[in-house]
Amino acid sequence: MKYIQKDSEPQEFTDWKNQENSNWKPSYKEMDKSVKKAVKQALMTEQGYICCYCEDRLNDNDSHIEHFQPKSDPAIDPLDFSNLLCSCQNNLKKREPVHCGKLKGDWFDEKQLISPLDPTCEERFAFTADGSIKPADNRDQVALTTIEKLGLNIPKLRNLRQKAIESFIDPSLSDRELEDFVNSYLEPDNLGQFNPFWTTVRYLFGIRE
Fold this sequence. Notes:
Blueprint: H1 11-17, H2 33-46, E1 63-67, E2 84-88, H3 100-104, E3 125-127, E4 133-135, H4 141-150, H5 155-166, H6 175-186, H7 198-205
Antiparallel strand pairs: 1-2, 3-4
Helix pairs in contact: 6-7
């Protein structure tokens, strides 16, 4: 889980909400497709095109707008941009493993779920060479619950993380070459896109603060 620093909501979203009048009130369900597209694009951009939870690569066709606090909660404004994220998975295929926002669904417990909007979230998780994720502190029950509720340790995600890790386990690389490789991987590209499983690579091979 990589920390996400929220940006301002897209102007299209603001303008659409500002059309509210005595005869019409904006709702998430009735959001214009063009507005929803702008919102989703803004979310993907601020996250560097990686999933808010597992950090797999995001693409427009297989991702969805995620309400961190579920929109089913009557106390939550479904149009509050500060509560919106972009999670992987959208139109699930038959027998496709479910994880991240799709698995979390309407479950929410503020005291038992780590938020990617928390600046300390990256410090709460550790990774192993086989792609497993675990609490950085084995006494951290909240981190363990977060992993379970988001399915972050399912075989599919473990395998994807392991593949990312394997790229760096090359005995032919000198220490300097490995350092350069890691630093390059952790830098966003010229479009602002991060590489998948950023925190996994940083934890195992990057500089610890």
